[in-house]
Amino acid sequence: MTDEPGKSLSLDRLDRAILRVLSVNGRISVAELARRIGRSKTPTQARLQRLEKSQVIRGYRAILDPIGIGAAHVAFVEVRLSDTREAALRDFNAAARDIPEIEECHLIAGGFDYLLKVRTPGISSYRRVLAESISSLPYVASTSTYVAMEAVKELGP
Question: HTH asnC-type domain location, by residue (predicted)?
């Protein structure tokens, strides 16, 4: 077991219980978390700090309603690059991080190079993002878009 950031941490039953509770409610108090896992506050807080220090817990955030923030349209975009050497991948990664509409970006092993999850208010704004931002990312050779009709399961409450 290690507490170094970026290293694998051996998780026991209590660590996993803490993570299950926090994945549903990241704002829970340590006292309530301790109660829910059947432990006292001090050891629960120590475990929580160890999970944070080792970056098993990488942070806490608000889960936003996409409709409420005007980003209900979801498209998945396959991206093929003209160059897949490490320098090209680094350039693409850095540029993709700067496009706010790209919610997720994954390097893929398969028939294309990247899979992007893109959120916009609607199809016309998606078309603009595709034309002006995604297509102009470094080394993009081609893209294919798949529009989501319904989110059956997503990160959220």
Answer: 11-72
Give 125-152 pLDDT, tens digit per residue: 999 999 999 999 999 999 999 999 998 9
Burial 37-62 (b: 16+ CB within 10 A, else e): bebeeeebeebbebbeebebbeeeee
The model's pLDDT over 32-61, given as tens digits with 9 standing for 90+, comes to 999 999 999 999 999 999 999 999 999 998
CATH for the stretch 73-147: 3.30.70.920
Q: pTM score > 0.85 for this model?
A: no
Quick one: fold of 1-61? Answer: Arc Repressor Mutant, subunit A (1.10.10)
